[in-house]
Design goal:
Chains A, B: It comes from Streptomyces ambofaciens (strain ATCC 23877 / 3486 / DSM 40053 / JCM 4204 / NBRC 12836 / NRRL B-2516). Chains A, B: InterPro entries: Aldolase_TIM (IPR013785), HMGL (IPR043594), PYR_CT (IPR000891). Chains A, B: It holds the Pfam family HMGL-like. Chains A, B: This is Hydroxymethylglutaryl-CoA lyase YngG. Chains A, B: GO terms for molecular function: hydroxymethylglutaryl-CoA lyase activity; metal ion binding. The structure is a homodimer of 316-residue chains. In chain A, helix 3 links the parallel strand 3 and strand 4. Chain A has one domain: TIM Barrel (Alpha-Beta Barrel), CATH 3.20.20.70. The first copy, chain A, has twelve helices and eleven strands. By secondary structure, chain A is of the alpha/beta class. Chain A is globular, with a radius of gyration of 18 Å. In chain A, helix 2 packs antiparallel against helix 11 and helix 7 crosses helix 8. In chain A, the strands form two sheets. In chain A, strands 2-1-11-10-9-6-5-4-3 form a nine-stranded parallel β-sheet. The first copy, chain A, has a two-stranded antiparallel ribbon with strand order 7-8. At the A-B interface, strand 8, helix 8, helix 9, helix 10 and helix 12 of A face strand 8, helix 8, helix 9, helix 10 and helix 12 of B.
Chain lengths: 316, 316
């Protein structure tokens, strides 16, 4: 146990955990996409620059969906070039070949597709069956990799529970994961879109995936804090060998104060735990908190992250 | 995996965890004691009755400290008799022999003393050294047990970090724990009073304690969610064999919105995780959420518990 710097936890490692975790920062995309008031493109670019300055190395920048679907991200063509020179990975979402064309034309080197583990959400989100959605992504993944050597992430939503279907069988998730890897995805992000997972379920899914031959180093986890479970679930995933964790600076995402309470795991709460465990992330927690406080001021409401509140003495 | 009832998680057990956890509910005492506006005694009594109705079996009721110290709990003489007939355990805090006399005169069968693992907090909270505080408690514990056969809990504050001293060496905590058990305490509650613990530290302390011969079934854990770590720390404690967990209905305690952000672990967030893991607590989550919503309405601000917010569709 060391004497920590101010604003940092004591460091006491635990056995059976990785030495390093890669934080996949989703605040600028997943965090902002449901904000009703459009955030000016220059504010978004500055947010991404500050996230990079805080030591984050994978910062999801935007989405090349049709502007009609997600008006908040309709500025992708302006935003991406404004941050493309940063020395970090800047993955972007691409829903289809048209989106891929737009992203590649701007020099994107990492793209992500977003599949669903359940028929109901595939229908609601993509107006397709699960298999039809996979068929739509196959040429996107193939072209991204073969023509441009891009890195491809496959998001998988509703890996634990689905608001229409209830519990999602792990076999169903394994099947879609296999399909995404078989079409060429380099990594997967297992999403608990409605925040209902608990640690036993997380362990069961990861055990089933690795048992089906999915390499654990292709797996990331993406937990929502709807019921306050995101960090416990993340800790469980780390114990199962996962080393890529999605999180959102300041807990941006959905609206934690509104009906459906769908906030992302806050990057600061994650980094606090990892720092305490002696797990390297490369993130400067003080600079990250300052970035989230700055963004919260822009959005006009406090961050829901407890670490941000504690370290910034943020009242509300 | 089962199909859950509405408002409950799927149940997927994990290996290496206990079958049952006893929740030590502290909302009525620890949760309310820092509220500036005095809550009427009848509201407190109704709160405790509703907590019992939700299935909680250990409900800390009040504190027999001098009324000048904690004005919010100055009604202990009125409150305790109003709830004493409930079929649950109702531990009360007693700081000294005078407090013990008052509690025993009302028929209390479970009392708790509150020690500190650090000299600085002992001085700040009790105006004594650690050893002087222990000497003050020794006759309280002895009389409670020998004269009345009461069950005695020993709270231990600042078991991980201390705002004046920084990291607290585990050896120091072990020493005070041993002293409390040697004087006759039946159980201990290990407090992370400022919320700085992380899972490695929790595991290291529990390993040190059991290694020093402290039976794990005498140990409870008491985490604060200042940095969002309370539930991960609790999960870690369960993996080390702990089966008594302190929590506060709705996350009452301190003021999570103010500078020092010292909210307790919310009972609802805990019960959600335990229910998901198939760990029995006897708590009816729906009734508990309704109780916290009712109390939040009385206090005039929303519960900070994410589970309460999600299940009550509580806006703020």
């Amino acid at each position: 146990m060391n004497t920590p710097e101010p604003g940092l936890p004591m460091t006491v490692p635990a056995e059976g955990l990785p030495a390093r975790v890669r934080v996949h920062e989703v605040g600028a995309r997943d965090g902002l996409q449901n904000e009703k008031a459009v955030v000016p493109v220059e504010v978004k670019a500055e947010f991404i620059r500050r996230l990079a300055g805080a030591g984050l190395t994978t910062i999801e920048a935007t989405s090349f969906v049709h502007p009609k679907w997600v008006p908040q991200l309709a500025d992708a063509e302006q935003l991406f070039p404004a941050v493309a020179g940063l020395p970090v990975d800047l993955p972007v979402l691409v829903p289809n070949e048209r989106g891929l064309d737009r992203a590649l034309a701007l020099g994107a080197r990492r793209v992500a597709v977003f599949a669903s583990a359940t028929e109901s959400f595939a229908k609601a989100n993509l107006n397709r069956t699960v298999d039809e959605a996979l068929a739509m992504f196959a040429p996107v993944v193939a072209r991204a990799k073969e023509e441009d050597g891009a890195h491809v992430r496959g998001y998988l939503s509703m890996c634990f529970g689905d608001p229409w279907e209830g519990p999602v069988p792990v076999e169903q998730v394994v099947k879609v994961c296999r399909a995404l890897l078989d079409m060429g995805c380099d990594e997967l992000s297992l999403g608990d879109t409605i925040g209902v997972a608990t640690p036993g379920h997380v362990g069961a899914l990861l055990t089933a995936l690795t048992g089906a031959g999915v390499p654990v180093d292709t797996l990331g986890v993406h937990f929502h804090d709807t019921y306050g479970q995101a960090l416990s679930n993340t800790l469980t995933a780390l114990r199962h060998g996962v080393t890529t964790v999605d999180a959102s600076a300041g807990g941006l995402g959905g609206c934690p104060y509104a009906k459906s309470a769908t906030g992302n795991l806050a990057t600061e709460d994650l980094v606090w735990m990892l720092r305490g465990l002696g797990i390297d992330t490369g993130v400067d927690l003080g600079r990250l908190v300052a970035t989230s406080v700055w963004m919260a001021a822009h959005l006009g409401r406090p961050s829901p992250s407890r670490t941000v509140r504690a370290l910034s003495h943020q009242e509300q």
